[in-house]
Amino acid sequence: MKAATIESKFPLLAVEHDCIISKDADITVAFKVDLPELFTVTSAEYEAIHSAWAKAVKVLPEYCVVHKQDWFVRENYKPATDKDDMSFLSRSFETHFNERPFLNHSCFLFLTKTTKERMRMQSNFSSLCRGNIIPKEVNKDSSVKFLEAVGQFERIVNDSGFITLTRLKSDEITGTADNPGLIEKYFALSLDNTTCLQDMELGADGLRVGNKLICLHTLSDAEDLPGRIGTEMRYEKLSTDRSDCLLSFASPVGLLLSCDHVYNQYLFIEDSAENLRKFEKSARNMQSLSRYSRGNQINKEWIDQYLNEAHSFGLTSIRAHFNVMAWSEDAEELKHIRNDVGSQLALMECKPRHNTVDAATLYWAGMPGNAGDFPSEESFYTFIEPALCFFTEETNYRNSVSPFGIKMADRVSGKPLHLDISDLPMRKGITTNRNKFVLGPSGSGKSFFMNHLVRQYWEQGTHVVLVDTGNSYQGLCEMVRRKTKGQDGIYFTYTEENPISFNPFYTDDYKFDVEKKDSIKTLLLTLWKSEDDKVSKTESGELGSAVSAYIQRIQDDRSIVPSFNTFYEYMRDDYRRELDEREIKVSKEDFNIDNMLTTLRQYYRGGRFDFLLNSQQNIDLLNKSFIVFEIDSIKENKELFPVVTIIIMEAFIKKMRLFAISLFNRHLTNRKSRIGNDLETSEVL
What we know:
Layout: H1 6-9, E1 12-16, E2 19-22, E3 27-34, H2 43-58, E4 64-76, H3 88-96, E5 101-113, H4 116-119, H5 140-159, E6 164-167, H6 170-174, H7 182-188, E7 200-203, E8 206-209, E9 212-219, E10 232-234, E11 246-248, E12 261-269, H8 272-288, H9 294-313, E13 317-328, H10 331-347, H11 359-365, E14 380-383, H12 384-388, E15 406-409, E16 416-419, H13 423-428, H14 446-459, E17 464-468, H15 474-483, E18 490-492, H16 514-528, H17 537-556, H18 564-581, H19 593-600, E19 626-630, H20 640-684
Helix pairs in contact: 2-5, 8-9, 16-17, 16-20, 18-19
């Protein structure tokens, strides 16, 4: 007995103008579908996605098949360790996840224009079972109308803002000499670009493609469906009593099913009016036979309910079918997979039906462009809106397109991802600021995550200023210091042997802007006045004048060392004398300089805190990119803590101001350069 070749049974004729043409003159347009990411869609957005699908399906002409095919294939993570400037920790992070298995998701959509006869064809007339195929003559008018409807379909879905359809080109469907096409990948059940065709066995033991053993679960009868469906479902593992974590209704057979599988979703668009007339006739027959069987009476009631829904809400009658095709190379593992698929369908409150009779026919009909070969007896009647609830509406997490970001891990599979949680959300309009709030109980990993975040931010050129209690960043700061050979990584902390100290009067260029002067004045007022004392305008003004006069003095005479000691001496000697020589005297009630000098005496040379504001290490914090203030040992100290807080605020504000000016100047330079280029071009013209 001579075995049949796949060439003799192959139903597709050609791929022309990016359309798949079958030997029965069916025309199919293929799309790559980009869906929203997992756990990122709200209830209202699920409704909007469902509405967009419904509007798009309604523009298709009669006798069309909408075939959505979701691939979920297990792959192993390949670390990216080929970058020359990669740090030790970044390289270790990548290698830690080497060969980590994860479920890769790809989604395709096939819109097929077929005929009334083909759509009602049963499995015994499939091209897989027939001895020969007689091509039909293509109706040009119907093809043109179909392609116009496909364009409208694509526009409606893309305009929704949630789903993106990308038309597949001919080479992507058929493949090239170097890369296999989608059809070839389907016959190998692999999306790998190095795949090759496999032999197929359609025997009594089931369906086999290469070494892959296939099991098929179908939803092909209305009795197998749940009593209530919706656009989304509550994901209990991540939901609380106060908040709902939502996924699409069909998510249990999507990314939540952790095995190699393909989820096929079919909608068969027929003549709705003819379907309803057929149901009206069937209802009359059931009514006339109801006296012989109670089942006829019950069926008549169900048909009446279906007709009432259609006429009351103007719904379109269609047929639908859904199946999950899973596979494994191990027969024992396949048994577990079969149970997993059944349990996931049960989570949708569907009745799992393991199909062994039509597995080969359904696999054949799932071929891209061959939806017209689908056996009609495997479908059930419904409406567009409830059928679309069985579409999977989310995909796995994707890497951010922005080059700036951090490495995180997929919460489902553990696969590393590159995420931009700072700039990209701003550009997309998701948020208007870059603030972040990390919340968790003790020991949950808050400091560990922040170490991970700031390390990667610093390695990408970001300036980091940290205020910490608990020495959580001492090791990271030491790493930065070693990597920069002591040029960066400043760690401020208080110990008895090495107390924390600053010099608020130090600048590298002797330039003091208004903000710098105000921060010094605020620091002095904080040291002078207690929390209950009110600062008068005269006191604030006189102290501000004194700061400005002292700054002018050290700018004119560079031999004066800028520090609190020399400022105190200036206030004690020169400024006190100036107050006495003024024509308009300042009373002690308005500005008591003696009280101020007495209060601040403990920060002067020989005082209890003389180390605090007279640092000999004049570190320029402005040009240091990694600074840590450890305040755990002084957070309860009423003298030291306010000083450290003000110094931190000043360093941060000055950094922000400097980089804002630098960014503005860079933008202005680029703009002048563009204007100059435009002027040169206009002169040439």
